[in-house]
Amino acid sequence: MFKVRSNLALVAKKSLSESLTPDMICRVASDVIEPGYDVRARTSIPESFPVSSQLAAGIVVDDAIDAGRFLHLVERIARLDREGFMGRSWRMANMREIFKGIEAEGYLWDADTEHFMEDPRTRRTANWGRLVEGEENRFSLLRVDVVRNSRIVREHGEAMARDAYDDLRVLMTRCVEHRTGRIWSWEGDGALAAFLFGHSTTGAVLAGMALLHELFLYNRIHNNLGEPLLIRAAVHTGPVRWSATMGEIAKQETVLEAMEAESRWTPPGSLSVTPAVAPTLDRVILDRFRPGPGDDSRLLVYDVRFCSP
Amino acid sequence: MKYLLCGDPDDRKLFSALERGLPPGSSLEVIAPAGFARNWKKKAPGAFVWLDAACLDEGKLLELGEKLRSLDACLWGVADRKGVITDPATLFFAGAADYLGPPLFRSTLAPGRLEAALRHAGLGGEGMAVEESYPPFPGWSALARDEEVQVRFCYAALSGQKELRERIGEKRLDKLREDFASFLGPWSAECGGIVWIKDTAGCLVLFPPDDEGMNPLLAAFRLVLDRAIIGYEVFHLEIPLSFHFAFHAGKTMWRPPGSTGTVVSDDVNFVFHLGTKAAADGEILVSGGASRSIPEYLRDLFVEQGDFEGRPFAASKRFKD
Predict the structure, then answer these.
(1) Of A211, A267, B54, B289, which is the most buried if we count CB atoms within 10 A?
(2) How far apart are alpha carbons B123 and A38 in whole angstroms?
(3) Which of B35, B226, B298 sits opposite A213 (nearest CB)?
(4) B15 pLDDT higher than 90
(5) A213 touching chain B per CB within 8 A
(6) pTM above threshold 0.80
């Protein structure tokens, strides 16, 4: 989790107090900490006395830190600095210094998503170093499972199967993390990856497509099983409450729906997308998918196929 | 020819000693005994297979040797780094073509050691084609202007440029071509290659005559497989994108990129024609001269097409959009 050093907190307070009115500070806090945030309720100052920008900034920054939302606060004021608010421009002071302070903690500004991300060269944690326990977000999930896992273990032995699954894990990690996703769980023969930032559904779908391509080559070049290693993969999107306990995540509706889409409706060797995902994809990607097999399927599927000779 | 080692993939000493003894440009594939037992029929034809005596007992080794002997154009030998074979002659009685005992692993295998084994098996000449190997490639910067060099040519281009022009306009297409040429720089460098000549439709890339890094045909295959992803993520296109490639091996006078002037070369003309006139969207064409560059694991994806301008060529199967 992001650790806010006292120097950085001070600079942030200074930036808010020098750049925004108390009302505007409260508005920012409402967006970032909780809707309807009231700075006066956090103080013992009587109604008849005005709250200064300095006081409001101090309280809001401290509350944002306590709520684990300091990065969200900085991202919000960075947007305010860039875009203004309701037609008025707000120039935020000390932004360069704040960014430097955050980067010194191993986080990088991602201009595409306009978020701070863990520097992937130093660490890659399942919550991107910024999600708070119980925080709900709309995630895109990529669920992957090895086809006929039990038979592979029975026929090839545990060691051979484990080698192949380790290879699969390397391939999947590469495809997922390249698109700022995170592997949330790996159960030996199956995995769950999550995407949150930017076009998260597109990221999850492209990671799934890339994984099928990697497996196509892996099966020809490195696979020692003597038969192709096949997966079923499905992408679904919906709300998930973050928890550091994976068991808690696995029980949630969106995760269960992703698992059902994969196990029940996805043909071996394919990637499917659910009806919640399909409309969010750009045409150029969506056109690569075709309706899933069977009259009941509402999924679209993609696989690697050759043209007929 | 393929070179396989059926042995412990973690035995780096064994692997590197054997690999250093191979002809330039060849690589050694290591397969664990369990995997080899299942795959030998598929992997071993046309290969020289060393069986690691440390992983297989003598009975199993002879049994496997017997099976390999029955395959087409397959030779087998024994790598005995730890000296567990008591009587190496029994291996030759059972049809082995080679035996590498412990002393041979203490230094680099003598040059020509493998050729000697092939000759001893009566396969050094016509029976089993021992591929011509080129002298080690000195690197692009070490080549002198107008020096004749043996290279692999690859003409790479965006497919369907007429349709692209209609959908994104001339200006964006020009930019896309520029971006594609820039993209090919690091792509070719992974295979030891260099973008040599750019024309309006595509680029001529040169690769060393033998693989240095990734095999260029595998790299091209990756691009064709990932075409939708690359179009979207790299070139930010909202319409489908595809590529086509033509590979050829031959000679040319070397001139550095950007100052090639007019290159007079039969091979350069041929690969330009093959790439611009014969290659369809998403296709990889390989002339007969470059066919040795097709890795074994991709060979079944190429189909012989007859002749183009009097030279044979093969085309890759195309992926469905």
Answers:
(1) A211
(2) 88
(3) B226
(4) no
(5) yes
(6) no
Residue B233 C-alpha, separation from nearest chain A C-alpha, in angstroms: 9
Contact A225 B32 (CB under 8 A): no
ipTM score for this prediction: 0.85
Interface test with A, best of B30, B214, B221, B232 (most A CBs within 10 A): B232
- The whole-number average pLDDT for the span A43-53 is 83
Q: Are B153 and B268 in contact (CB under 8 A)?
A: yes
Q: Where are the alpha helices (DSSP H) in chain B?
A: 12-20, 33-43, 58-69, 89-93, 113-120, 161-189, 216-225, 227-233, 266-273
CA dist A173 and A124 (Å) reads 11
- Residue for token digits 């660490």? A123
Nearest to A187 by CA among A143, A138, A229: A143
Interface of A with B in 94-153 (CB under 8 A): none
Please indicate whether, in this complex, the C-beta atoms of B228 and A285 are within 8 angstroms of each other.
yes
Q: Nearest-CA distance from A131 to chain B in Å? A: 26
Q: Helix B58-69 to helix B33-43 angle, to the nearest 10 degrees?
A: 10
For tokens 């700075």, the residue is A39
Q: How far is CA B133 from CA A24, A199, B163, B293, in A?
A: 74, 49, 42, 12
Q: How far apart are CA B242 and CA A235, in angstroms?
A: 25
How many helices and strands in chain B, by DSSP H and E? 9, 12
